[in-house]
Design a protein that fits this description.
Two copies of one chain form a homodimer. Chain A has eleven helices and 15 strands. At the A-B interface, β13, β14, β15 and α11 of A face β13, β14, β15 and α10 of B.
Chain lengths: 352, 352
């Protein structure tokens, strides 16, 4: 069995502004370690899958920064999409290129910017998912046990058991309202965290069955670096619809299994989420240079320079080369309101 | 009557860190307008006394920055003290140099870093003090009506009236404890804000009578720019004791009058004091570029870059080129604790 990571790294999140910028989105930020979240994502797979086997799909303008961030990934395997067309076209394309890699080749689709730990539990789950995908010719989605009525995630209803831990997918559920979410949590639904494990052959078959426009656009597509590959990529992204793999395939196939995760997961939706792994006795999460006096429960991030604070509680304080952000942790989502205001200001876009 | 401002600008305050640094103390900061507090201090005197008539005493290493900050003051009238020796030697020296400027010459000693407004009321009080000083051959100290039991200031007990508003100084009181301060406030004591008005001749006479070591060190002192003046300045500052004018002269002379101020005064003891003149409807005082969403009662100072904040109350947020400071307004005094910690850190002094 050989694993081929397919990392989706096209995001443009604003929730980590001012550290995240258009040219440096969340997956390129060193939020959890000294390296980018994308590099963390690849490192977490080692030794299950080497970086040299990984494919990364990102926005075309981000490709140089992505390559610089993960030098272990061969340059041609970092693919810059001319247009963002959601996840299905990207996953189909990677499956197309991985097709023919051998009977024991398994693709592992992963987001590039989530917190996952411990890494060994994660790798064990991936390995189990890959074996299941091979043995059952199925698409295995990793399901995160839902522990709160989150309205921002999709949910998976698990059906009958298949093998030791995997279960059939009874249904994919779109983002629910709070009441429905609470019911999902009570009945043991799992979160869909965008992690899919499958053989390229199975995925291509499903694409052909459920997303024929994508399948036909794939025909004849050369591998990166082959003659005409750039133009073919342009044509492909111009031809395919913008559609998620959930909607294009997962909600339609009868061939989906779900494996409940046994690792900790967080999609790091805002600065507040960084507070999850408090680093000091006062519950502060600190990155960069900080001087704190009587400060607790706070997320302090100095990308540059020093953050000095006295007598504050539960704040987010972020300092970058040109912006300082201060807000209560519980208001971290409201950073997007600031970004919106900046977008409307005459000289605001320089800071986005 | 001609007024000669004598501005004492040798301070090294740390209470406006991180904006204030050893090389850029409070009087050189643009805390209340777009120019330095020292420049504000001189501008406030116009048209009562032109900048060309002013003398400024500062630390030798600060003299270039001081000159740059107040280009209207002749270069030789910005005196860099080789050593700080408190206020008496500086005031004696200025009086010595102003001696012989004419029978209508009056020196006005002023701190360089206080908030005073409105300026016209201030100038009227100075004019009245100067007339009183000339007519009575007295040293007139401006007394600030004490409106709270401040323990950080010296107090003046006013005695019998002299003329229309001036009164004899019954006693100078050193910084009191809170209980004593409350008694002083109740009995109408005034704060000593370090503003003294006198003819050079009267001050020199008092210096000779009460501080003979200073008086004898003055003998033969050339004016700035004259041959040997630099060496003479060195010798003078080496010879004189370090002593305040309050202790050396004011507490001893029988020739002191006090004029109660009719202007508003604040010594701007910390970032919190900047909140005194709130600028927006939510009670925020903002300098520099800020993006505030649901922020109130806060002091926001962006010396460089942008300060963005959401959902905070009564905070001080200061951003400089290398430091961001965040603290509640009521903890602004504790900035000094941070400065102390930085001083002890290996690479902290670069930020002081």
């Amino acid at each position: 069995m050989r694993l081929y990571p397919v990392i989706l790294a096209g995001g443009r999140g604003e929730r980590f502004w001012p550290l995240s910028r258009r040219a440096r989105p969340k997956q390129l930020l060193p939020l959890l370690s000294e390296r980018s979240m994308l590099a963390d994502t690849l490192a977490r797979l080692d030794p299950l899958a080497p970086a040299s086997s990984a494919w990364i799909l990102t926005a075309r303008d981000l490709a140089p920064a992505v390559r610089a961030s993960v030098p272990g990934v061969p340059e041609l395997q970092v693919v810059g999409e001319p247009t963002g067309k959601n996840t299905a076209p990207a996953i189909a394309l990677a499956s197309w290129w991985l097709h023919g890699s051998g009977a024991d080749a398994v693709a592992v689709v992963l987001p590039s910017d989530h917190r996952i730990e411990p890494a060994d539990a994660f790798r064990k789950d991936l390995e189990e998912a890959a074996q299941t995908a091979l043995e059952r010719n199925a698409i295995v989605v990793i399901g995160i046990p839902a522990n709160r009525p989150e309205t921002g995630y999709g949910y998976i209803e698990a059906g009958e058991p298949v093998g030791s831990r995997a279960r059939r997918v009874a249904a994919f559920r779109e983002k629910p309202d709070r009441e429905t979410a609470a019911r999902y949590v009570a009945s043991g639904h799992l979160w869909n965290a965008g992690m899919f494990v499958f053989t390229p052959e199975v995925m291509l078959k499903e694409i052909r069955a459920h997303a024929p426009e994508i399948a036909s656009a794939l025909e004849g597509m050369p591998a990166p670096g082959e003659p005409g590959s750039e133009q073919a990529l342009e044509r492909y992204y111009a031809a395919v619809p913008s559609i998620s793999i959930d909607y294009a395939v997962m909600e339609r196939t009868r061939n989906a299994l779900v494996l409940p995760a046994r690792f900790g997961w967080d999609d790091l939706g805002s600065w507040a989420a960084l507070g999850g792994d408090a680093q000091d006795a006062a519950g502060n999460t600190v990155r960069g240079r900080a001087l704190l006096e009587d400060v607790s429960g706070s997320v302090v991030f100095a990308d540059e320079g020093l953050v000095a604070a006295v007598g504050v509680r539960d704040l987010v304080i972020v300092r970058t080369g040109d912006v300082t952000l201060v807000c209560p942790r519980e208001r971290a989502q409201d950073v997007r309101a600031l970004v919106e205001r900046l977008r409307r200001e005459a000289d605001g876009s320089a800071l986005l």
